[in-house]
Design a protein that fits this description.
Helices cover 45% and strands 17% of the residues. It is built from twelve helices and ten strands. It has a single domain, classed as Aldolase class I (TIM Barrel), CATH 3.20.20.70. Helix 3 packs across helix 12, helix 6 runs parallel beside helix 7 and helix 10 packs across helix 12. It is of the alpha/beta class and 276 residues long. The two termini are 30 Å apart. It has an eight-stranded parallel β-barrel, surrounded by eight helices. This is Orotidine 5'-phosphate decarboxylase. Its EC number is 4.1.1.23. Keywords: Decarboxylase, Lyase, Pyrimidine biosynthesis. Pathway: Pyrimidine metabolism; UMP biosynthesis via de novo pathway; UMP from orotate: step 2/2.
């Protein structure tokens, strides 16, 4: 990598707009597209998404679980999605939500963040809930190779609040995640490479994001209920660093590549107007 992930993301958003589209080959979407629920249907679905979107969208976010469900054939499709999307100019954020300790976390970092790995993406999602320090192998490898890490902070699922909003020394657990991510981004320009995941559908954040100096992945746009106008309410002054994510609201327009592209560009333009 010739530049940090934060710098490459800033350039991509400047050129292509603030939109991340999830590639989520959910069985229901395969049915909707008229595809079989097997590795061949997965491949046609995923590569159609790449064909339609990778030339125009800043970031594509394959959900690893939907590929892993098909075993080695599914992982092979994921490898091709990563390679083809990056070749077409999109950044690839691999949604794996890995979190572990010691040598196991180091192995995850080797798989997803190391040069030469067939699963290496531009960035990955990770979970800090074994302690933020458990992410050190991933953070170190991402820094070494110019890649990014998005750390789960405040998610929109109702079960998450029990842990994420719990208080520790007067701060929520989610705020401690924000603060530790911010410390990793200190001094980075134009943007740090340690991002956060904060759901676009959370009713309130109660987070101080002012010192983050990093990107915020905001899933939940479209089918999950959040619209472009909600982003300013949820994220406030941090809005310029938000990367909203839409999946089903775009993917439901398949299998026609032109219809997929049109839907994504419409969402992108609506976001650009809301964020500006």
């Amino acid at each position: 990598m010739t530049a940090s992930f934060g710098a490459r993301l800033s350039a991509a958003v400047g050129a292509r707009g603030p939109l991340c589209v999830g590639i989520d080959p959910h069985p229901g979407l395969l049915d909707q597209w008229g595809l079989p629920r097997d590795a061949s249907g997965l491949e046609r679905f995923a590569l159609t998404c790449v064909e339609a979107l990778a030339g125009d969208v800043s970031v594509l976010k394959p959900q690893s679980a939907f590929f892993e469900a098909y075993g080695s054939k599914g992982v092979a499709v994921l490898e091709r999605v990563i390679a083809d999307a990056r070749s077409a100019g999109a950044l690839v954020l691999l949604d794996v939500k890995r979190g572990d300790i010691g040598s196991t976390m180091a192995a995850y970092a080797q798989a997803y963040l190391s040069d030469g790995s067939p699963l290496a993406a531009d960035a990955v999602t990770v979970s800090p809930y074994l302690g933020f320090g458990s992410l050190d192998p991933a953070l170190a490898e991402a820094e070494r190779t110019g890649r990014g890490v998005f750390v789960l902070a405040l998610t929109s699922n109702p079960e998450g609040a029990t842990v994420q909003r719990a208080a520790v020394d007067g701060r929520s657990v989610a705020q401690t995640v924000v603060d530790q991510a911010a410390s990793r981004n200190a001094g980075a320009a134009p943007l740090g490479s340690v991002g956060l995941v904060v759901g676009a559908t959370v009713s309130r954040t109660d987070l101080d994001l002012s010192g983050l100096n990093g990107p915020i992945l905001a899933p939940g746009l479209g089918a999950q209920g959040a619209g472009p106008a909600d982003l300013a309410r949820v994220f406030g002054p941090a809005l310029p660093h938000v990367l909203p994510t839409s999946s089903r609201d775009v993917l439901r327009h398949g299998p026609d590549p032109a219809a997929l592209r049109t839907a994504a560009l419409r969402v992108r333009d609506d976001l650009a107007a809301a964020v500006s």
